[in-house]
Every structure is written in C-alpha cells, then in structure tokens.
Design the sequence.
C-alpha cells in the first residue's frame, strides 16, 4: 500500500514508497522502493519527487536547499587546461568548468591564453628551439672530438705517425667538425645537421 507524508515529512500510515536517492555530492544515483512505518520519515538522502531526465552532457543534482532537482553541466572525464599554463587536469565533479581553466587544448608548450583562445608566443618558442639546437651542436662536436681523441689521431699527426688510411679518416672527421661549427643555430628548429663520417 502506498503511503502519504504530512507537511513535516512523516508517514501517515505504513506503506511502500518509491524514493529517489542522491550521493554525498548531491548527485542523483537512482531510485528504490522502500517500506515506511507510520510516523517515520524517508531514508536519508532520498526524496519523493522524481528527477527529470538528464539532458545530454548534464547531470542531475539535488539543489543545496534540498527542495528541487537541478541540471548541471557534466564534463567528468574530460581534460581541462589551466589558462595560466600550469597544466591540465581531468574533471572529476559535475558542474561548470572551474574558473581559470578551459576545454581548449594549447597546441604548443609556448601558448598563452588571450581571454578567448591560445596564442603561441613564437619568440619564446624560437628561443627554446635555438637553445636546444645549441645543446645539440655542442653534443655533436664533443662526440666527434671524443671519437678522434680515442684514436689518438691529433697526437699521431703531430708526430708524423698517422698512416695514410687513418689520415684520410681524420680529414673526413675534421671536415665534419668544420661543418658542425658552421651550423647556424638561429634557424632552429629548421636545421640540416651534417652527417658524421661512417665508422
């Protein structure tokens, strides 16, 4: 038998009611049929009024005052991006996108938010590319020098003890070093690195 509740929320008779339940975050999680006794109230976090069907991309919550159902945007599982560039995070709660974040993903690590969209700071991007190219150039030069020093070519040539085959190789590596030194890193990231001689 279905029961009614008085204006204070207590059952007027024993009976069965369908209730609509929320979780600790006030989100609707489903309905259940429960028995109530005369003079008792509904189980905690449950309500008699049926919630509306959720619109696509929305979640159903109980209002803060507990008097009605509300629909809120639901971006859970989506990644949002901090407009101050501090990084992304995944949305875990229903509701609007929190202040200081956007669903728009920056296209580079050098993008800045202009209040509507991401704009790439091309000067910063280029400066970083030049720094990386300078490091790459130094690493290649160091590796070439290490290769020649491991074979003791500079010392052997100074003493006139370099064999013809070694001398030919040494010249190829010196040419490679000259080509590396000539690389203009200001054109980064568009650099055609010279190819090291075969070993």
Sequence:
């Amino acid at each position: 038998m279905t029961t009614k509740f008085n204006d204070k929320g207590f059952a007027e008779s024993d009976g069965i009611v369908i209730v609509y339940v929320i979780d600790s975050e006030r989100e609707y999680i489903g309905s259940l049929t429960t028995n109530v006794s005369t003079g008792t109230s509904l189980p905690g976090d449950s309500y008699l009024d049926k919630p509306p069907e959720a619109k696509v991309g929305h979640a159903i919550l109980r209002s803060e005052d507990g008097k009605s159902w509300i629909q809120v945007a639901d971006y859970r599982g989506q990644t949002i991006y901090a407009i101050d560039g501090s990084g992304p995070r995944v949305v875990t709660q229903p509701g609007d996108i929190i202040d200081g974040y956007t669903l728009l993903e920056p296209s580079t690590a050098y993008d800045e938010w202009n209040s509507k969209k991401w704009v790439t700071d091309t000067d910063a991007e280029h400066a970083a590319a030049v720094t990386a190219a300078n490091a790459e150039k130094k690493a290649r030069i160091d590796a070439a020098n290490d290769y020649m020093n491991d074979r003791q070519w500079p010392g052997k040539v100074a003493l006139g003890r370099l064999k013809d085959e070694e001398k030919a190789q040494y010249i190829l590596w010196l040419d490679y070093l000259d080509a590396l030194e000539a690389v203009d890193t200001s054109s980064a990231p568009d650099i055609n690195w010279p190819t090291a001689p075969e070993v």
